[in-house]
């Protein structure tokens, strides 16, 4: 249900911007704004994330498995945690190397900033940061372009339409 996840993020983002702007404008207090953000997230959870529509795919899958799924679960039944220690340990085992790699990537990206700030000062760090956002913006553009053609490339490759696949790759690269 990626559509529900995307909508939830959109709703939370819009509510966060609105709450932050309104609360800071009228109270001038960042602590109240943070409380407003928390209340907004709870409201989205209660009204959207935990609705029965979010769990409709799970109900459909369980019905095919012959488990006699009840279509309209109560709020508590939908939102209660379902712990499976074996799956959690398996996930942890996969996540540990990814976590280590993420830490190394973060350190690698930020290390120049630490040295520049320490040895040259905040002015040069600001200049360096501004210059490094040029490639970052280009990477964001390339990523967005990749997401736009990813599904079509997958379809061409899966269908064995290698000529169309290569043409689209060349157009995208161009």
Please describe what this structure looks like:
The chain is mainly α. The chain has helices at 2-27, 30-49, 56-64, 75-79, 85-119, 122-158, 162-173. The chain starts with a helix and ends with a helix. The model has no long low-confidence stretch (mean pLDDT 83).
Radius of gyration: 23 Å
What fraction, in percent, of the residue positions are helical?
over 70%
Overall form: extended
Characterize the quaternary organization of these chains.
single chain
Low-confidence stretches: none
Helix-and-strand structural type: mainly alpha
Task: Give me the number of helical elements.
Answer: 7
What order do the SSEs take from the amino end to the carboxyl end, as H and E? HHHHHHH
Percent of sequence in beta strands: under 5%
Summarize the main sheet: none
Overall mean pLDDT stands at 83
Distance between the termini: 34 Å
Q: Can you count the beta strands?
A: 0
Topology summary:
Blueprint: H1 2-27, H2 30-49, H3 56-64, H4 75-79, H5 85-119, H6 122-158, H7 162-173
Helix pairs in contact: 1-2, 5-6, 6-7
Task: Describe the structure using short key phrases.
extended, 174 residues, mainly alpha, 7 helices
Give a quick precis of the structure:
This protein is an all-alpha fold. It is 83% helix and 0% strand.
């Amino acid at each position: 249900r990626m559509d529900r996840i995307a909508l939830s993020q959109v709703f939370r983002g819009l509510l966060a911007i609105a709450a932050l702007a309104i609360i800071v404008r009228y109270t001038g207090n960042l602590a109240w704004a943070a409380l407003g953000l928390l209340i907004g997230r709870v409201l989205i959870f209660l009204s959207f994330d935990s609705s029965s529509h979010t769990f409709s795919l799970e109900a459909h899958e369980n019905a095919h498995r012959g488990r006699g799924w009840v279509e309209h679960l109560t709020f508590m039944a939908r939102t209660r945690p379902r712990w499976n220690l074996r799956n959690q340990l398996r996930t942890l085992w996969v996540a540990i190397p990814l976590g280590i790699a993420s830490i190394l990537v973060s350190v690698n990206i930020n290390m120049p900033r630490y040295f520049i700030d320490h040895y040259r000062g905040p002015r040069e760090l600001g200049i360096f940061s501004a210059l490094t956002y040029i490639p970052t913006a280009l990477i964001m553009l390339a990523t967005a372009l990749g997401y736009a053609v990813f599904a079509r490339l997958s379809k061409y490759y899966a269908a064995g339409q290698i000529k169309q696949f290569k043409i689209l790759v060349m157009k995208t690269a161009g």
